[in-house]
Structure formats: structure tokens, C-alpha cells
Amino acid sequence: MEQEKYAKNLQKVRAWMNENDAGAMAQVLEAQMALPAETEQDRDRLWQAIRAIAAMLPNSPIKKGRGSSLPVEVQTLIDAISHDYGVEMGLAWNAAENRYLMRKHGKSGGGLFANQDEVIETHAAKMASDLKKRYNDEIWDGTREGLYSQIFPVQEVNEEE
Question: Which of 57, 81, 114, 155 has an alpha carbon within 20 to 30 A of 22's alpha carbon?
């Protein structure tokens, strides 16, 4: 792995650690990232170890597929916020009779959720999509503090009939 790509990957993991609690794995990740990576082979091996450790974490910083075009800090914050939101919605779903009130979106087949994990995944993905749209539409500045000062456009209502 090239040095630039390795540094970018470490930046993503560090940004994730700033927004998420890695628990006891934080020390393990920090230790791996501190090891010298002078050759491509060293970087490949270390990155493989870091990926394996990160895979054990909830809301892992390592994602499959093409990376986001958003700044690392913004994408990491979106991931953290949307994951927390999904967990909260899962807890609400799991509470008493509430599970019979929440339904899946019609495009997802409609009906009731099968389990709490499905609720968490669905609501986290929806919130992540919404936050990305807010950022791209310049409603939100991409910071945690900016969530309190979002400026939504006001739609004018045409009262003529």
C-alpha cells in the first residue's frame, strides 16, 4: 500500500475514534497505528491488522465499497450520529407495544420490522442519507455544533387558487 493511501486510511480511523467509543480496542488500534510502516509490505500487513481489529467494533470505521466524497470528519460524524439514532430507534421499537406501531417504508416491502437489528439498520441508513443531503444542500455545516443551528429553506405557499 502506498504511503499516501495508508496515511489517509489512518486518518479515517482516527477521526472515527474521535467520535466513537472503541472501548478497550482503542488502545489496540492506537498501538497498531503507532508501529513503523516504512515499506509497502509493512503498510499492507499493518492495515490488514487494523481492519481485523476494527471489524470487531460496532459501527466499524472500515466500510466496504467506494469511499465517500465527503470530508473524512463529516462522514465520520454522520456515521456516528446515524448509528446512535438507529440504536435509539431500535430501543423504542423494542419497548412494550411500540414494535407494532413502527413500519418499514413501502419501498422496503412495507409491513412490520422483523427484529431490532432491522430497525437499527433501517433508521441509521435513513438518518445518514438525510444528514448527507443536509450537508450537500448547505443546511448543515457538518459539525456536531452545527446541528443546533441548521437553516432550512422556507417553502413559500401559493395561496392563489
Answer: 114
